[in-house]
Amino acid sequence: MTVPPSRRTVVLCLLGITLLAAGLRWWMVTHAVSPSRDCLVFVRIALQLYDPPKSRIDTVRQLDGPADVLRETDQAPGYPVAILGMATALGYDLRTATADQMVLAARLVSVVAALLLTFPLFGVAARLFGPVVGLMACFWFQILPVFVEITSDGLSDGLFLLTAAAALWFSLNVLDRPRWHSGLRHGFSAGVCVGAGYLVRPDSLIVGLTIGLTFLGTAVARWARKDRGLPVFLGGVGLMFGTALLMYPYVSVIGKLTNKPAMTEEARVAPPAVAVPFAAWWNADKDDESPRRVWAVTAVGDELLKAGHYVLPCFAAAGLFWARRRLTDARVALPALLIAMHLGVLWYLAVRAGYVSQRHTMLSVMLGAVFAAWGWSCIGALASRLLRFGAPSFWAGAWVVIISASCISRDFRPMHTDRAGHREAGEWLASHANPHFSVVDPYGWAEFYSGRTVRGWSSAHPDRGPVVYTVFEPNPKTSHSRLPWLADAAKLAARGEIVFQYPADAPPDKVRVAVYRGPPLLQREMAKQLP
Questions:
Q1: Are 229 and 222 in contact (CB under 8 A)?
Q2: Does 495 reside within a domain?
Q3: How many CA atoms within 13 Å lie on the side-chain side of 501?
Q4: 448 located within any domain
Q5: How many structural domains is the chain composed of?
Q6: Cβ–Cβ < 8 Å for 330, 214
Q7: Residue 425 domain-assigned (yes or no)
Q8: Tens of pLDDT along 248-297?
Q9: Angle at 380 between CA 377 and CA 384, to 5 degrees
């Protein structure tokens, strides 16, 4: 690592990392049993933006264009719009696109964003610590099991992280530029990336705020020592204008910064009945021995460790330690400050909403990969000097082998195997169920694959019609206690007859998913819905 690699070597390594990342995600997409619930929501919003349905709040009112759709959904429009663009690029007719086609479009948007992320992330890491560290950071982050999963599952995280990495790269350009017009131009570009990220997820405002504070502090410090602070100050001005340019239309439509419940009101979502591996909930019955603020620290830390596959955050801490004397450099301080700001906001939201997931920590994990790669390179250099064994390049190779062995084996685990049967149930409903009869599907996948909720809202009305079709797991492997309609579905299943089951030849105690046909519930029999 003492001799910088040639440009040709760097390009070939980046190409290899990108091909490896593409291969891992191709395998995950082709072996996934079903998409995530959030993917279904994004697909539905995308098609509703294209062809607005009736209002979910006032069911007799037709939504008047995309603006009305945005007011009724709690998701930002950036990712659904990208799904529409991908579906159009694939040649799909949006008026007749199927569930499978739209899910594939959603997954491809996320996969493409994850692959493109390699380049700005390398640019940030190489700018700070050199090209070898940049390659190590990209390799490590691209094969992290959690990152591979969420960027293969039709979620918005890949697109958001792409905008964040690009914004950081332009920000580093501002800090390096001696001319005012160059600082203004790159600051405006960073602002456009922040604004684009805000249209995907409101977390992008954390990125913009951190960059703005860094610009302001750097400009003041340079002016104090009689240096050129104007380029950085104008970079901050460009940042604000670029961000506002993309934020304003959406904010003016919805009338506030975001529709996200956790950002606008106290969340009152009940925790699941059993522990789940991808998130942490505050449970007043189990966690009342420690204050909620203390629980939030533990929860954010646990999810960060799991998202980073446990090893990455440890090496990131080591890298921050070795880089401590370089934190006076604004370029190094910027990602470190962003990690601190992001984790602080996550802690606040965990206290407020009582919930945090591994997905929420991925921005800090991405930046942590930069410091983790630097930490490993420092450890390799130290080991080479103290042990007098192996050149730094040997220790870098050992790092690649160790990380590959720990991550890639985990990457080849199919997603959502516990959801097998729901797709088949949806296909049965599409071909056999009377379209005028209600379907109660608390899980959501069967109703989606039946075509009923690809564009419109759920038709779950347990108390309507002469017949109600119910999708239910009679022998669940995991708890779904937080799902709406689950209690009503159990009552409907108890009084109905099985018309479809998966597997088809399974005994009663081995049936995973079943469709029941039976009479509706009375109003007094219906359970109170969870918020």
A1: yes
A2: yes
A3: 16
A4: yes
A5: 1
A6: yes
A7: yes
A8: 999 999 999 888 876 554 444 555 544 455 778 887 666 555 688 898 99
A9: 145
